[in-house]
Amino acid sequence: MLPCVCWLQPILVLLSSVFWTRGENCPATCQCPDPHTVDCSGRGLTRLPEEIPLDVRRLLLADNWIPRIPSDFLVLYSDLVYLDLRNNTLSYIEPGTLSTSSRLVFLDLGSNNLTEIPKGTFGESRSLIKLRLGNNPYLSMVNEDAFLGLTSLRELELERNALSTLKVGALSQLPSLRVVRLEGNPWVCNCNFANLFEWLIENSHKLPNGVEGMECSLPMDGRRVALTQLSKDSFRECQATLTLTDLLIIIFSGISVSVVAIMTSFFLASTVHCFQRWSKGAKGDEEDSEE
Known about the structure:
The chain has helices spanning 2-25, 169-172, 191-202, 244-290; strands at residues 31-34, 37-39, 58-60, 82-84, 106-108, 116-117, 130-132, 141-142, 155-157, 179-181, 187-188, 208-211, 215-217, 224-226. It is α/β, with parallel strands linked by helices. The chain has a domain at 31-186: Alpha-Beta Horseshoe (Leucine-rich repeat, LRR (right-handed beta-alpha superhelix)), CATH 3.80.10.10. Residues 1-23 have low confidence and may be disordered. InterPro entries: Cys-rich_flank_reg_C (IPR000483), Leu-rich_rpt (IPR001611), Leu-rich_rpt_typical-subtyp (IPR003591), LRR_dom_sf (IPR032675), LRR_TM_domain-containing (IPR050541), LRRNT (IPR000372).
């Protein structure tokens, strides 16, 4: 029996060292269910925890009171693939903060206090597949180039925010996009919404429920209208385009006005000059008659 104990001893030592290392590297207020996961959810944190293992792959920080992410926070965590920051008090993400995580696949920033998504927020996180930005009640602006470089992004959640409009370019720059959620926003049915409406109709298969349940308010009286009741003709006044004939008429009219203005100026100048010469001649005749 002694030989068995001697044989098992190295294994027991190895296992004990693994568990000891895991507990040693885990932040005091968090749990680490496996060597590459740090779970700090619901800990009442008001800032990011310290002493997070550098080889962390899944970082769970949901349901806390974290107001900001330091711009250099992710520089050292090159292995991070999953970051959950939902239900915190984030109001702003400094551009470039998230671009250093080249392997990031999943990012949840939902249920925060974000007000805008500016250009460069995500850098060129080419590995990002799923991005959650829903349930930010103050999020009213998404830059047209906010998602530029996210070539692998398949799922984008922007539901239940404060968006009244969204540039189509923000979505058309996502070549891998398969699912997008935009319901629950206070869209306004004006000309700024016309292009987005057309995109939604053409890409309704990317919406979990199509345009069902989506509404926009009329700019005149604020009345809410279901998108299913609208068509491209509803925005025909916004789609007025100039034909080649119209452009030629405008150009010809501009040239004609310019020519008329030049001729009028020349005529007035000539008239003034002749009047001055006539005045001088008349004055000379009067002087001669007096002599």
